[in-house]
Design a protein that fits this description.
Layout (H helix, E strand, L loop, with lengths): L13 H11 L1 H19 L12 E2 L8 H12 L5 E7 L6 H14 L5 E5 L27 E7 L5 H21 L3 E5 L1 H35 L2 H25 L5 E2 L1 H29 L9 H31 L7 H31 L1 H5 L11 H11 L1 H16 L7 E2 L11 H12 L8 E5 L4 H8 L8 E9 L3 E8 L6 H12 L6 E4 L1 H35 L3 H26 L4 H4 L7 E2 L2 H29 L4 H31 L4 H33 L8 H10 L4
Parallel strand pairs: 1-6, 7-12
Antiparallel strand pairs: 2-4, 2-5, 3-4, 8-10, 8-11, 9-10
Helix pairs in contact: 1-9, 1-10, 2-7, 2-10, 4-5, 6-7, 6-8, 6-21, 7-8, 7-10, 8-9, 8-10, 8-21, 9-10, 9-17, 9-20, 12-21, 12-22, 13-18, 13-22, 17-18, 18-20, 18-22, 20-21, 20-22, 21-22
């Protein structure tokens, strides 16, 4: 059987007319996209506006408007947070008077730096290092350990340049203190942690793309058998990356953009662009194979371009819109970081989609003569994938049961999934700033923020203390103090053993919030913030899921004319994504493969990962579903019997789907090779999702379930059939 597209005259749909326009003026399209790409990279990375994207990134736990954030607002009003710089000194002889004098003299110089407000150091205490009030600043609370910290507070409200200058000068003078005392000093701050994360993200991005682009080009060279064809999707991918970075740069002016967003969104654009480019170039060569001349004429090239944009372009359009709908579900959530990822992700997908149906066809036209050399018309519809489909169709029930058992087994670990929001733990274990703060928390626990803080609306310290004492005996509680907060509030600081988001800390937050008090109470802290974030996400999740399910259902219905196929696709995606999350839990929460993947388990999964995996993974899964269904539907509409249409559709798209999946795995393998923990988790999750979807689901479950359903695959109620006849999107 030949390609049904060769059976009649070219359909003059809008996409076909676009293809004809591209074929007539390919160099204009290439030139316009070249200018756009250069402009995107110049603005986003080149810093032509005065700063680059990476200079605008932030880092921190995801937050929402909640009880925790309101408590933080009250605290900030009375105790405004100051930018600080902390130095840890080790190996100092704090019993030697000369050493102490030299250190104190050098420390006084720190306070003379413009922009420094105060300097807190045991060396400046009136009674020296033996003063009980400076014990929290001494390692072990005593001079005998030879370690101490100095904390520099900066004047609030400094602009970015002045703050940077002040920190740089203060750091140099702090390190001079350690030198004067013949000791070792290290400096850390929140801004340094953010800079470490953003610089690591930038390095991971460059390394990921440095790995992905050459490997994908190599794979596509073997897929296409030529450099020209292999290079076209890569060119489209590079342009899409530029669009992705510009989209992120624009988003950073609207919301605070977390550093981890850049890798996630940019590599998604890279992966989708390669997928779409692969599909477009493959279809162009397939259409070009129907030519009558060895060297294609202008009319034959135009015909092939029309058909490519009308068919592959339609598939890309459906796929891109499906992925965009999946990411648009993130816009429903309250957390600004999720909305930022949603906006940037949708923008990137749309850029990749437009590039695939305009730039890549234009490149195909320019290289048509080279592409035609290996564009040989297929003589047989029998191959590896059609034989696989026929084998599955012989025992569809056995295949369904076997694959579902495997997927459910993989998904089981999700039942025990724990979520957390890491700080410095996002960095590699040997990162200087992570080492600094882990040492600070261990040696100077009094300087770390309490795990749980309660803001009580009362002026009576004694009454608040009496109420708060009931929590002193709760599991994990190590210390509890009460102090005035402004003139109208009291602050209850509770230290809990373990990580800030430990089960004990979260249980304590839940208990406090459920306990009545004779005054208003607001509970905050990292555990409280995580609880509020997850509660907000859970509350909005049904709306996000509803939007994605409805949008996906409508699109697949418009493409297939069936209500059964969209429902089946949604169910299969849920199972495969559950399996991917199970892999993430097994590896990162339970601590398997730590040495191989180069990470240190924190006993939980980062709180944003499940939501992002569901959005991105769903979109990618539907990507392959659309690739496969579009060809099955194409054959079915040309009168091919259902089972035969499935085997032909799998034969025509199996190579593309497996190649695209391999390329996506290579791209997201850059995530796995990264140093940021949440990026590594996303990489493993998406690699697992794509691998599972492209093999077990598309190659086995889809043909098996379509075989069992038979003619019911194409069922729709009469009113919906009439609706599809009128509004359905066909070639």
């Amino acid at each position: 059987m030949q390609n049904p597209s060769a059976a009649g005259p070219a359909p003059r749909t809008r996409l076909a007319r676009l293809g004809a326009l591209i074929a007539r003026h390919p160099l204009r399209w290439v030139g316009v996209w070249a200018v756009i790409a250069v402009a995107c990279f110049a603005v986003a990375v080149g810093g032509v506006t005065g700063e680059s994207l990476f200079e605008r990134l932030h880092s921190g736990a995801p937050t929402v408007e909640s009880e925790s954030s309101r408590a933080q607002d009250v605290i900030s009003e009375s105790q405004p947070a100051l930018e600080t710089l902390t130095m840890q000194v080790t190996g100092a002889d704090l019993t030697d008077a000369t050493t102490l004098q030299d250190g104190a003299t050098a420390t006084h110089e720190v306070g003379k730096v413009p922009g420094v407000k105060t300097v807190r150091s045991p060396l400046l205490a009136p009674k020296g290092v033996t003063d009980p009030s400076v014990a929290p600043l001494l390692k072990g609370g005593t001079p005998a350990a030879g370690g101490f910290v100095t904390v520099v507070d900066f004047v609030p409200g400094l602009d970015k340049a002045a703050q940077g200058t002040a920190e740089s000068q203060a750091e140099a003078r702090l390190l001079a203190v350690a030198t004067a005392m013949d000791a070792q000093g290290s400096v850390g701050s929140t801004s340094k942690v953010i800079k470490a994360i953003t610089s690591t993200v930038e390095r991971d991005l460059l390394r990921g793309e440095g790995i992905a682009l050459p490997l994908t080009f190599l794979v596509m060279f073997f897929v296409f058998g030529g450099f020209v064809a292999a290079g076209m999707p890569i060119v489209g991918a590079v342009v899409s990356i530029g669009g992705a970075l510009l989209s992120l740069f624009g988003s950073s002016h609207v919301v605070e953009l977390d550093a981890t967003v850049v890798n996630i969104v940019t590599l998604l654009g890279l992966g989708l662009s390669i997928d779409y480019g692969l599909l477009t170039v493959s279809r162009f060569r397939e259409e070009l194979a129907h030519r009558k001349h060895d060297v294609p004429t202008r009319e034959e090239v135009e015909r092939a371009t029309e058909r490519t944009v009308a068919t592959a372009g339609r598939t890309v359009l459906f796929s891109g819109l499906t992925v965009a709908i999946a990411l648009a579900g993130l816009l429903v959530f309250e957390a600004s970081i999720m909305r930022a990822i949603g906006v940037a992700g949708v923008s990137v997908v749309l850029v990749a989609m437009v590039v695939a149906i305009t730039l890549v066809p234009a490149l195909c036209v320019v290289g048509a003569k080279r592409l035609s050399r290996k564009a040989v018309e297929q003589t047989s519809d029998v191959g590896v994938f059609s034989r696989l489909a026929v084998g599955v169709q012989r025992r569809p029930v056995v295949v369904i049961v076997g694959v579902v058992v495997v997927l459910v087994t993989l998904a089981l670990p999700t039942l025990s999934m724990k979520l957390t929001s890491s700080g410095t733990e996002l960095l590699p274990t040997d990162a200087p700033q992570r080492v600094f703060f882990e040492q600070l928390d261990r040696d100077y626990p009094a300087l770390s923020a309490p795990e749980v803080t309660v803001v009580a609306g009362s002026t009576d310290t004694a009454a608040v203390t009496s109420w708060a004492q009931q929590f002193r005996s709760r599991p994990g509680v190590e210390a509890l103090t009460v102090q005035p907060l402004g003139t109208e509030h009291q602050r209850v600081n509770i230290r809990v053993a373990g990580r800030p988001t430990s089960d004990e800390a979260q249980d304590l937050v839940t208990t406090i919030r459920a306990t009545d008090a004779p005054f208003e109470t607001l509970t905050t802290g990292q555990a409280a913030g995580q609880i509020d974030f997850l509660d907000s996400m859970s509350a909005r999740a049904p709306y996000a899921v509803g939007l994605v399910v409805l949008g996906t259902f409508v699109l697949l219905f418009l493409m297939t004319g069936s209500v059964v196929l969209p429902v089946k696709a949604l169910l299969l995606n849920v199972i495969s994504l559950g399996a991917a999350l199970g892999v993430v839990v097994w590896i990162f929460q339970e601590g398997h493969l730590e040495g191989l993947l180069g990470f240190s388990s924190v006993g939980a999964v980062e709180s944003m990962v499940p939501f992002l995996v569901l959005a991105f993974g769903f979109g990618l899964s539907m990507d392959y579903e659309v690739f496969l269904l579009s060809r099955i539907v194409e054959f079915h509409r040309h009168g091919v019997e259902s089972d035969r249409a499935v085997s032909l559709g799998l034969q025509r798209t199996g190579r593309i789907i497996t190649s695209a999946a391999l390329l996506i795995i290579i791209v997201f393998g850059g995530f796995v090779a990264g140093d940021i923990l949440i990026i590594k988790e996303m990489g493993v999750a998406l690699v697992a999702a794509v691998a599972i979807d492209a093999t077990l689901v598309r190659m086995l479950l889809v043909p098996a379930t379509m075989t069992v359903l038979g003619r019911w695959n194409w069922w729709a109620p009469a009113p919906l059939r009439r609706l599809h006849d009128r509004f359905g999107i066909t070639e």
